[in-house]
Specification:
This protein has helices at 12-30, 55-66, 87-95, 111-118, 134-148, 166-177, 206-210, 234-241, 245-248, 271-274, 281-300, 302-305, and strands at 44-49, 70-74, 101-106, 122-128, 155-159, 181-185, 201-203, 215-218, 256-258. It is α/β, with parallel strands linked by helices. It has 2 domains: 8-132 and 283-306, Aspartate/ornithine carbamoyltransferase (Rossmann fold, 3-Layer(aba) Sandwich); 134-282, Aspartate/ornithine carbamoyltransferase (Rossmann fold, 3-Layer(aba) Sandwich), CATH 3.40.50. The strands form 2 sheets. Strands 7-6-5-8-9 form a 5-stranded parallel sheet. Helix 2 (55-66) crosses helix 11 (281-300). The two termini are 30 Å apart. The model has no long low-confidence stretch (mean pLDDT 93). It binds phosphoric acid mono(formamide)ester (CP). Phosphoric acid mono(formamide)ester binds next to helix 2. Phosphoric acid mono(formamide)ester (CP) binds next to helix 2.
Amino acid sequence: MNRHLLTIDDLGVDGLHQVLDLTDRFVEVSQRPIPKVPALRGKTVATLFFEDSTRTRVSFETAARRLSADTMAFAPRGSSLSKGESLRDTALTLGAMGPDCVVVRHSAAGAAHQLARWVDAAVINAGDGWHAHPTQALLDAYTIRQALGSLAGARITIVGDIKHSRVARSNIAAFGALGARVTVVGPPTLMPPAIDTWNVDVSHDLDTALATSDVVYLLRVQQERQAEALLPSLREYSDRWGLTEARAARLPPGAVIMHPGPMNRGVEIADSVADSVASLVTRQVANGVAVRMAVLFLLLAAPEQAADPAEIPTPDLEAADA
Ligand code: CP
């Protein structure tokens, strides 16, 4: 594994399998009465979230604590950003406190790459603008593998605002590398101009795509990222692209429904569909903690323990002192 996790390309196909295989071990740890192991004792994980987050921030903090790492949390509100401190000076200041890993989310594409140049720590991209959200893709790939057995040959339909979605970009890279066939569906105004070069099929007919999908992955309508009026009204969006109960009934038996959260219930997904047995939304969140434990372990412990970097070292999974 590379020193940082900035995009899915940092892993390659072998690295993707390595993370998913190791995640099985941390799912087991997460199911214990005391879900804590000493694998990262003495390490410090800093979280720098310049954009709002519930799932990603809390699951990284939980993952670090379950591995017995210390955590250092930076929140922009109440920080010296309000006095004009730059991203670089903020990064250098936190870097000077000696974290082993910095998990960063920022509204600017490329912010995580910049940070990796400024700090000595391993950097994990927790979402940068429209660009990438690699740990979301890892937890989604893991959840699909758990549900279907494998991504190889799986037919995955991603629906909605592809243009503004870092989740779509990272998922397309991960799902494709693992052998899935990806179709993107959505309004033409919300497709990126270069979509023809993305190694996906493009459709504007959701009902037809659903009939041959093993997985339907709904993206959040991100009104905050749309400078232009690219969307019809939310009601029109829901009528044409929302996964209603009637549309979900077109899915083949055994198909599963996913969403990265937070969901706009009643817009891209109907309430009853979000809460149906086919929905994996809460399982995605639970798996997110185990996937992030695997990523933190591989970045922070594996390089010290492995004679051969291609080999997955065995984490110490004995119970830690609570
Ligand atoms: N899926 C996701 O990134 O959710 P948060 O914005 O809550 O972290």
